[in-house]
Amino acid sequence: MCKLWLMVFPAISRVEFPDEPQSPAVMLAMQHPNASGSPATPSSFLATNYTMLQEPGVEAVVRNGTLPKSSPVMAGLSMTLGILFNIMALIILAKAYNRFRRRSKATFLLFASSLVATDLAGHVINGALVMRRYSVDPMTYSTNDTDAFCLFLGGCMVFFGLCPLFMGCAMAAERCLGVTKPLLHAQLVTTARTKIALALIWLLALCVALLPFFNLGTYTYQYPGTWCFIRVSEGTEGLDLAFVILFSGLALSSLASAFVCNTISGITLIRARLKKTKCSKSRSTASHDTEMVVQLVGIMVTSCICWSPLLVFGIMSALRSYSGTLGSDRATYRRLMITGVRMATCNQILDPWVYILLRRAILRRIYRITKRKGSLFRSIRWEASSFHITEKTASTKL
User: Fold this and answer.
1) Domains: count for the chain
2) Is residue 364 included in any domain, yes or no?
3) 199 lies in the same domain as 268
4) Which residues of the chain fall short of a pLDDT of 50?
5) Would 369 be classed as within a structural domain?
6) Which of 26, 63, 176, 374 is placed for a possible disulfide with 22 were both Cys, Cβ 3.0 to 4.6 Å?
7) What is the DSSP letter of 280?
8) Is 32 left (phi over 0), alpha (psi -120 to 50) or beta?
9) What pLDDT is recorded for position 376?
10) What is the CATH number of the domain that holds 306?
11) Which among 136, 153, 158, 12 has a CA at the least distance from the CA of 66?
12) How far is CA 248 from CA 159, 245, 251, 252, 262, in A?
């Protein structure tokens, strides 16, 4: 029994059995009085000894940032689904573009195809880099240091994050002009100018993403060490704060501009529908305008839901880290940031479904099914009411 006690509780056994030789550290811990002047008890010695044994390991984990190897299943599944859905949407948009090459919808389809192609490239490049990061063992990260891999991954994250938001804003502005000022739209908007606008959007996003390459901001590994982004959680400097404000400000401004343009387009179409005015546009053109605005609203809602958390949490974390008030909330903000980037990744998965589901053919089919069910429900109610009237008339005659 005594031997079993020694095997299970070796630290306590050393206190219970003083005949056993003690190390100098243990003897000092046993003889050292506490704050009240009484000798150390076995329980206080056990807590002290446990702290002595555990603290070096904890310090090593915090200092090296070494985490257990994470599972890449979710990242691989997200990457695969995003690639498949974007390819499906790209095929649908390419067929539609060939059909409406000479119509006003061609510029919208060119924007939409470019957006989906950019999302596809983002899934392939960012996904491959993240999967490469998952293969590193052990998975270590530091919020203060960076390397060439992190610099490239962070730049890709910023570039492929800004491009879809810029394109969504440009598409909303183009449709707003087309709905409110169709003649001016026909004069200003051409396929060549649309391609120039796309090139400028890519160039602007690239310039913002390359700022840390010129020491204007820093990309660092983010919790849990599988992705890179602007330094927002630890050691944030003035340039880092300015960079994250620039990134989030541009993204939020794009979302706000798209909201304003889509609101104006929607109100204009609703007014035209309610007044039932016959304008110069044909019914087919008006139907195309409605379809495009519905798709833009879907893109805007999806982008706002998916991107707002990362943009807001990034600014909040950077402000508190720069002011030195992050403190014990650092772990919370790290979890918020990883949640935000996962939601932003979902945006690139959901965007293709806007074009797949919110097409005119699908919407018309949904409308017919809903109308059919409504008429069936009304007929059932009419038959039931007529049955009750007949039954009441028969009882009155009797």
Assistant:
1) 2
2) no
3) yes
4) 1-68, 138, 279-281, 387
5) no
6) 26
7) S
8) beta
9) 56
10) 1.20.1070.10
11) 136
12) 12, 5, 5, 6, 21
What SS3 class is residue 139?
strand
Instruction: Give a yes or no: residue 259 inside a domain.
Output: yes
- Model pLDDT, residue 308: 92
What's the pLDDT tens digit per position in 224-262?
Answer: 778 889 998 888 889 999 999 999 999 999 999 999 999
Tell whether 106 and 239 lie within a shared domain.
yes
Helix axes 330-357, 148-180, angle to 10 degrees: 40
Range of the domain at 178: 73-359
Q: 198, exposed or middle or buried, with CB in 10 Å at 0-12, 13-18, 19+? A: buried
What's at 75, amino acid-wise? A
- Residues 320, 182 within the same domain: yes
pTM of the model: 0.72
- pLDDT of 183-223, one tens digit each? 888 888 888 899 999 999 999 999 999 999 998 889 998 88
**Whole-number pLDDT of residue 102:** 56
What's the one-letter identity of residue 311?
L
Within 8 A by CB and 6+ apart from 135, the residues are 72
User: Is residue 26 one of the residues assigned to a domain?
Assistant: yes
| 138 phi-psi bin (left φ>0, alpha ψ -120 to 50, beta other) | beta
